[in-house]
Design goal:
The complex is a heterodimer of chains A (182) and B (273). With 182 residues, chain A is an all-alpha fold. Helix content of chain A is 66%, strand content 0%. A two-stranded antiparallel sheet of chain B has the order 1-2. The chains are: A mainly alpha (182), B mainly alpha (273). At the A-B interface, helix 2, helix 3, helix 6, helix 7 and helix 9 of A face helix 2, helix 4, helix 5, helix 6 and helix 7 of B.
């Protein structure tokens, strides 16, 4: 088999990022291991436990595909995270979940009324998050967990900043009920 | 009621209210213990969210094998003339990762003694995805299908985990004599090999069908139908947009899911003995 020349390592990129962009799978695996916890946490919180593994894999496969487009103008972690958010939102659109995103769901209040045992606070926080209505949850995660601004969230989700603020408050009030025993 | 105030507490907390409203809420909070308590709770919620963001949790299983396989499938889709040395490195890497993953998976499943419930089976089909990179046990002349390896096999494999050639599945002790007819075939997503693997597993499932209850069969068939529809839709979409990498990935993923579901269902027939 005739092998073409590998692309040169891109200058201006840090170690493993540059190596991975040049096609080094070992370097890409190291990047995966460095960043998988944050990406998986994002997908799990945004989409739920059942989707998280598969979507995380999809995100890293796409990252490999798109590494050639990364110019190093932002931190790799920032670029990766934004790509991950885009994949998550795309996945939600694909399954038409977004249609229900802003729908009111008063019954959701009933889901999170049990105070957690103190020893399991972190897990219970994650569980409570997973039980939030989808629209409130994604805005809560993007704003309070991931640190995006309402303006940015509004752009990602194609909603108004006002809607983003209202959903955030709704999510916080639901989470507050859960954490009252804390 | 306090709602007119509590509804503004998130924006107050985030400093996003206009100055006059911020001052009004300030004044109200000084005289209203109930609203002040809600604000304190909201602060704790935000603090907890920030803590969670600062302490991400990794997945419970290593997902790398599926990623390596996904990368490999992209490489496989390239015309041979465009393959580079790095593509081949990815392929070799992917194969090793997939095999190691399959061994770990077999070990984990063995430790649980294959106690599939119907929802688990359905979930396995739809949600777990085929992250093993396409390793399938072909079993010539073994209508009883697959068995997962024994604990002693697992211990041995755990010691030899770094050996790329180690097999992820073995015949069970009572079938040990027939082990020589079992072999592991790495299945690429190329049509001929994939179709052959699917046909083998469908045959095994058909033969073992009598060992499964009707509800299980219904779930398997229902999920196969869903996956087949997804494959057909992806193929149709790709016909109109052959360069679309998302659609390509979606097709590969759906095909893997089908392989994984068939593999699990075939294994279930043997476990039902």
């Amino acid at each position: 088999m005739t092998l073409s020349a590998d692309p040169p390592v891109k200058s201006g990129l840090d170690g493993d990022v540059a190596l991975a962009a040049a096609g080094d799978p070992s370097a890409f695996e190291r990047l995966y291991r460095t960043h998988v916890a944050r990406i998986h946490s994002l997908t799990r919180r945004m989409l739920g436990t059942h989707e998280a593994d598969e979507v995380t894999q999809d995100i890293f496969v796409r990252t490999w595909q798109k590494l050639g487009q990364f110019r190093g103008e932002s931190a790799f972690s920032t670029w990766l995270h934004r790509l991950a958010v885009n994949v998550v939102l795309e996945r939600r659109r694909t399954f038409a979940i977004q249609r229900e995103r802003i729908a009111d769901d008063p019954a959701a209040l009933d889901y999170v009324t049990v105070a957690p045992a103190r020893a399991d606070l972190t897990v219970d926080f994650e569980n409570a998050l997973e039980q939030l209505p989808a629209g409130a949850r994604e805005i809560f995660v993007l704003h309070d967990v991931e640190g995006y601004k309402h303006r940015e969230i509004a752009g990602m989700l194609e909603i108004t900043s006002g809607t983003s603020k209202r959903q955030l408050h709704r999510a916080r009030m639901l989470m507050r009920k859960h954490l009252q025993g804390d | 009621m306090h709602e007119e105030w509590t509804d503004r507490l998130s924006e107050y907390l985030d400093g996003e209210l206009p100055a006059d409203e911020q001052r009004a809420v300030d004044a109200h909070l000084r005289g209203c213990a109930e609203c002040a308590a809600v604000l304190a709770d909201l602060k704790r919620v935000v603090a907890r969210a920030q803590q969670a963001g600062a302490a991400p949790r990794p997945p419970s299983a290593d997902l790398w094998a599926g990623i390596a396989a996904g990368i490999d499938s992209q490489r496989s889709a390239k015309p041979s003339g465009e393959r580079s040395a790095s593509d081949d490195a990815v392929a070799a890497f992917s194969d090793r990762s997939a095999e190691a993953f399959a061994r770990r998976r077999a070990f984990a499943m063995k430790s649980r003694r294959i106690a599939f419930t119907l929802p688990q089976l359905a979930a396995a089909a739809v949600l777990v995805a085929a992250v093993s990179g396409g390793l399938v046990l072909k079993f010539a002349g073994r209508p009883e299908g697959l068995r997962y390896e024994t604990a002693s096999d697992n211990r041995r494999d755990a010691q030899a985990d770094s050996a790329p050639g180690a097999q992820p599945f073995r015949a069970a002790a009572d079938d040990r004599a027939a082990a020589d007819v079992d072999r592991i075939v790495p299945v690429s997503m190329a049509d001929a090999q994939y179709d052959a693997a699917v046909a083998d597993l469908e045959g095994a499932l058909k033969q073992g069908r009598g060992r499964l209850d009707a509800a299980t069969i219904a779930i398997v068939e229902h999920n196969l139908q869903i996956i087949d529809q997804a494959i057909a839709q992806a193929r149709e979409a790709l016909a109109g947009d052959p360069a679309n990498t998302y659609l390509s990935g979606h097709l590969v993923e759906a095909r893997r899911r089908k392989l994984d579901l068939l593999r699990r269902a075939a294994a279930l027939t043997s476990e039902s003995d």
